[in-house]
Request: fold
Amino acid sequence: MKSTNRDSLRGPVLRSVSRSFYLSLRFLPKALRDPLSLAYLLARATDTIADTVEPPATLRIEALRDLAAAIQGTASTKTTDALRKSFAPLQSDKAERTLIEELPALLTWLDELSADDRAEVRSVLVKINRGQSLDLQRFGAGDEIRALKNAAELDEYTYLVAGCVGEFWTRLCFAHLKNFSARPESEMSALGVRYGQGLQLINILRDAGDDLRQGRCYFPADEINSLGLTPTKILRDPIRIEPVLTKWREKAEQGIEAGKEYAAAIRSRRVRFATALPAKIGARTLALLREAGAGALTRRIKVSRSEIRKMIVSSALGRSKQNSGAAFR
Reply:
């Protein structure tokens, strides 16, 4: 693949499909930036396939399985070309259409990674794709609002689509950076899992209203039922779901605290800053969710671009003052 094409993938294409993760990646050393960027783009591509609403769920499950096989190197280029031709025209979002059109280039980039990095990217995508497939099996029909059964299913989902990324990030950092952390890899990996799960819970809390309107409820059915509710009644009487929202906000906050611990142990200031930024954005999002309460189900909650820019500037100024804790000040 031409270097200019790869520059486009790690630059404009990545920036167009990722608001906050792209900002973190910009500050990482190149040895980390390439495998992390590619893994994100592949995960976003498989997610786009899974979320394309026009084909029935059975076809999306099959397409996701085919793309997952291509990522693992067990499917032919014809399979990828067929996916690109069938799914790219269905994307109303220009950035996602471009991402699907670039599938062959993404897979070429994967082949050109070092053997160790390629194995790491494939390993984390196995788990992410498993989570995406479970999501389609549980919610793909869209004929009614369905909920996860219990907290164990929610924990499983947040691990598969995000917690495993904390493990992946940790393995890459220990492999590529000397003296990466003041803590052992096993401790950093466990913190990374909790951090990733916390960030995913924030996404679930932030998007809960939209998800319910699309037939998906990630809050456990047994917890909803204990309040005398069913998933179909939540939007009609949102205030009653507050105890469940509060529980999972608190769980997300614990994940953000784990992320702060993780970042504080990193010796490289650049990598610490890149790792800390999602925690800062996540903490601010949680504050907005707390303020909104059940109202978050009826309106969009997100941190503005101007606030994120201020976070970056303030953290960068803190770094320049040699303050090891500046990423969280």
